[in-house]
Specification:
single chain; mainly beta; five-stranded antiparallel beta sheet; four-stranded antiparallel beta sheet; binds fe (ii) ion
């Protein structure tokens, strides 16, 4: 199988074994890209593997199943009311990457969009329920760092400019997982975003009191910039832009470090 990510809650590590088969040998020997070696198998279920974090507790590993699909990234997981809640970006199917494909010729309408779903897992009854949290095509979720594995309210993701269908990520969407509402900051038509990073304001009292940082590539100017949003006020637009004199190759994931590594 092929597992890219996992989530943690207070007591469990949660893995999704998606309905794919993965033979890495052609990739290891340099004949194919990694994506070409992953094959979607829609007749297989998705297996949800729930591993206790504390081996001394003596609890067994549990495996639940749900319908076929594919997950690269999980947003967060937490335990509440006897359930485990897991929020993940799900695809109905996984597009087959072929040899010598040109990424510029991708037809986005042919691909299933990633959408944010909530899975409710009940270990005693061995049930899985799922509920759509966001239909807008999205990927690369981020949450407040103190909320990882804990009950939380807000998720921040890269999102497509249009509300339905598949398209490149051209803005940042903020999802209120409790009210179900979302708001969107767009950088279309020329901007393409990377994973948002949430930076809490020191001594913040509310979960969304802080900033969203994202690297935006501007296709018209062929330059990149870091854009900073007020996480509590998306409607106000960017509160700062740090333009670079050059572009940075599109990097997908977002990371923050307090250290400066280049030579001064
Ligand atoms: Fe990833």
């Amino acid at each position: 199988s092929f597992i890219h990510d996992f989530a943690i809650s207070a007591n469990y590590c949660i893995f999704f074994q998606s309905a794919v088969q993965f033979n890495p040998l052609p990739y290891i020997f340099g004949f194919k890209g990694a994506g070409e070696c992953v094959h979607f198998r829609p007749h297989l279920p998705t297996r949800i593997i729930i591993v206790p974090r504390d081996p001394k507790a003596g609890k067994p590993v549990k495996v639940l199943s749900t319908k076929a699909g594919f997950v690269f990234h999980h947003t967060n997981a937490f335990e509440q009311d006897g359930n485990i809640y897991l929020d993940s970006i799900c695809y109905d199917s996984l597009y087959q990457v072929k040899t010598n494909m040109d990424y510029r010729e991708i037809d986005f309408d042919e691909l299933a969009p990633g959408q944010l779903w909530r899975f409710t897992l009940n270990l005693e009854e061995e049930t899985v329920e799922q509920q759509l949290l966001l239909s807008r095509c999205c990927e690369f979720p981020a949450v407040h760092p103190d909320k990882v594995g804990r009950p939380y309210r807000y998720a921040y993701l890269g999102g497509a400019h249009q509300e339905l269908g598949n398209a490149p990520l051209q803005g940042i969407v903020k999802v209120d997982t409790i009210s179900g509402q979302s708001c969107f900051w767009s950088t279309a038509p020329d901007g393409f975003v990377s994973e948002p990073v949430f930076v809490p304001r020191p001594q913040a009292k509310t979960e969304d009191d802080g900033w969203i940082l994202t690297m935006v590539y501007n296709g018209k100017k062929h330059r990149s910039e870091i854009v900073i949003l007020d996480a509590a006020n998306f409607e106000g637009g960017a509160i700062a832009r740090l333009p670079l004199k050059h572009h940075i190759p599109y990097g997908l994931h977002g990371n923050w470090t307090n250290e400066y590594f280049a030579q001064t």
